[in-house]
């Protein structure tokens, strides 16, 4: 009976040690995350194996797991860059990105968990300065926003693709010009619009006048042809035809042949 406590105490100690060991070794990786394993006595960061996936993971207590979000993420950036003529342009942009899953170990080893601030944001700023520097404020304000968005995306992708970062999209949300430049551009655009409207009205009036001239010429030509074709004999024939048609009417009438002007019949009746 005296030996039972002596056996029970080591078992309790072993159980407590086992619980501590499991608590130190167990790691839960959440949804949309992955883990990079660091082996303290085994060469450091593991780069030749896939990252640890979601769920419950057991590692030796002297090793570590660094957890990364591998879903698409968004980062915002406000920049001041120069246009082609040296004016300051403020750009409000955001980037959709995610770390390359299979290269997560190398990303952690070479760039660390601060890869967004160390790699991605500097690459976006550099690309934005390069792209915006090719355009004038007028181009940026009016028609080139989609173009600079695509060009910033392409140039940033070339930089970060080699740094184990997958860039999915660059969105230029706003391009802000100096107030005086913006007012001057808007005034110029209004003047151009008014000029285009005036030219349109002139062109429309000219087309309408040309239409009326064509119609007038057509009527004049028709009248001239008709006048040339109406000889005395033709008029007499037309008159005779009309008289014959009237004579066939049921209304009572008197026809005097050869008593009208030019020898045409005269029709007298009570209707």
Automatic annotation (TrEMBL):
- Keyword Coiled coil present in the record's keywords: the answer is yes
What are the subcellular locations of this protein?
Membrane
Record's InterPro entries?
Answer: Band_7, Band_7/SPFH_dom_sf, Prohibitin
Q: Which residues form a coiled coil?
A: 188-222
**Pfam family, any one:** Band_7
Recorded GO CC terms? membrane
Q: What is its main location?
A: membrane
Q: Which residues form the Band domain?
A: 24-189
**UniProtKB keywords:** Coiled coil
Question: Which topology term describes how it sits in the membrane?
Answer: Single-pass membrane protein
Q: Does the keyword Phosphoprotein apply?
A: no
**Superkingdom to which the source organism belongs:** Bacteria
Q: What is this protein called?
A: Prohibitin family protein
Q: Which organism is it from?
A: Robertkochia marina
């Amino acid at each position: 009976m005296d030996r039972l406590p002596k056996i029970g105490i080591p078992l309790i100690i072993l159980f407590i040690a086992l619980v501590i060991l499991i608590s130190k070794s167990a790691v839960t990786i959440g949804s949309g995350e992955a883990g990079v394993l660091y082996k303290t006595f085994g060469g450091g960061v593991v780069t030749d194996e896939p990252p640890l996936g979601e769920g419950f993971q057991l590692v030796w207590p002297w090793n570590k797991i660094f957890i990364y979000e591998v879903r698409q993420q968004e980062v915002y950036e406000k920049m001041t860059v120069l246009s082609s003529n040296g004016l300051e342009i403020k750009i409000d942009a955001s980037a959709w990105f995610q770390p390359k899953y299979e290269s997560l170990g190398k990303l952690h080893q070479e760039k660390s968990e601060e890869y967004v601030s160390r790699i991605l944001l500097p690459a976006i700023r550099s690309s934005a300065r390069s792209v915006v520097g090719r355009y004038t404020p007028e181009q940026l304000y009016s028609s080139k926003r989609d173009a600079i968005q695509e060009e910033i995306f392409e140039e940033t992708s070339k930089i970060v693709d080699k740094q184990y970062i997958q860039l999915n999209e660059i969105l230029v949300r706003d391009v802000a010009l100096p107030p005086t430049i913006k007012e001057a551009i808007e005034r110029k655009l209004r003047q151009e619009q008014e000029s285009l409207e005036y030219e349109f009205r002139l062109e429309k009036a000219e087309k309408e006048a040309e239409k009326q001239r064509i119609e007038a010429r057509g009527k004049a030509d028709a009248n001239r042809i008709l006048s040339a074709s109406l000889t005395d004999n033709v008029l007499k024939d037309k008159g005779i035809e009309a008289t014959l048609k009237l004579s066939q009417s049921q209304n009572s009438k008197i026809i005097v042949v050869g008593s009208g002007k030019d020898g045409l019949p005269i029709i007298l009746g009570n209707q």
